[in-house]
Design a protein that fits this description.
2 domains, Rossmann fold, about 325 residues, alpha/beta, about 10% strand
């Protein structure tokens, strides 16, 4: 009787999808919050996504904690930004995790920059660490162009489909739906950015190249003389003079930048400052990839609109 009861219970569990390999979700580790959000959208109910670098954390500098190693050890798929953005911490975590599924070149390892057709900011000439946080392979912040986010979603779907063929159609369908939603919002986001798209900007850190390229905004200077290194007073004074010479300039900084420096510089220029999230979760309102662009474009538009109104004497 006990054997017969056990067989019946197992059969019932299989019928409900609660037993056997078919019930197992694809385990995905994502280095960045943007990638985690996209992977979760594409994976849906068929994937379980864990995040390594939370949104408020500058992704250039992440402590390699044991808890992150455990996430990598369990993963079937690692999706990472690439272009050496995670070079300071991801290799260390992977060596410690010893997960053969995530070996370089394996099916469980996916560099998402492969989805990007146009890498911006590739330096020319000699590069070394004395120049600051230089990325010799190009600017790695490509997810700040939402069109690249759609392309990454398609790339992730194809790799998920390879690893989990039983749900291949579902992964591809969700990626196509995400692309359609992003494409449908592009014009709205540009409208939200408003006057910012017709004005030059000075950035705090060279983080925004893809965003500015998409919106057609010209960056005429950076408060950081060398990326990742606190700017000298002399350089800040030069940038302030540059900003004062352009009455229509505005300043852009990320939520994790040295905002005291950005605020003082913008005040001395007489220019508005837009503090915007550089990643999903970097601001409470930017709790998803689409919401992040709502916040970014909305704040760009608000900063430049309020400045224009003040210049015209509008209450």
């Amino acid at each position: 009787m006990r054997i017969r009861t056990t067989i019946i219970l197992l059969a019932a569990a299989c019928a409900m999808g609660l037993a056997g390999p078919a019930a197992a979700k694809l385990k995905v580790a994502a280095t960045l919050s943007d990638l985690a959000w996209i992977a979760a959208e594409v994976g849906g109910e068929d994937a379980e996504v864990s995040l390594l670098c939370p949104g408020p954390q500058d992704p250039h500098y992440l402590p390699a904690k044991p808890s992150l190693t455990r996430k990598l050890r369990k993963a079937d798929l690692l999706v990472y930004n690439g272009l050496e953005l995670e070079v300071g911490w991801l290799p260390v975590l992977l060596r410690t995790a010893r997960n053969n599924r995530l070996k370089p070149g394996g099916r469980g390892e996916l560099e998402c920059s492969l989805a990007v057709q146009n890498i911006l900011g590739i330096p020319t000439g000699r590069t070394d660490r004395s120049q600051g946080d230089i990325h010799p392979l190009g600017n790695p912040h490509y997810l700040l162009d939402p069109r690249n986010g759609a392309a990454v979603g398609t790339l992730i779907a194809e790799r998920m489909a390879e690893l989990d063929p039983a749900h291949a159609d579902a992964y591809r369908a969700r990626a196509a739906s995400l692309r359609q939603e992003i494409d449908g919002r592009l014009a709205l986001w540009r409208d939200m950015a408003g006057a910012a798209t017709a004005r030059p900007t000075i950035v705090y850190h060279q983080h925004w190249e893809y965003l500015l390229n998409w919106l057609g905004i010209e960056a005429i200077g950076a408060i950081e003389h060398r990326p990742g290194i606190n700017p000298s007073p002399g350089h800040v004074s030069e940038v302030i003079a540059l900003g004062r010479a352009r009455a229509d300039v505005f300043v852009v900084a990320a939520t994790w930048d040295k905002l005291d420096i950005a605020e003082k510089a913008s005040e001395r220029m007489g220019a508005p400052l837009a503090v915007i999230p550089g990643a999903v979760g970097a601001d409470p309102a930017a709790d998803g990839y689409l919401a992040m662009f709502d916040v970014i474009c909305g704040r760009l538009g608000q900063a430049t609109a309020s400045d224009a109104a003040a210049a015209e004497g509008t209450p």
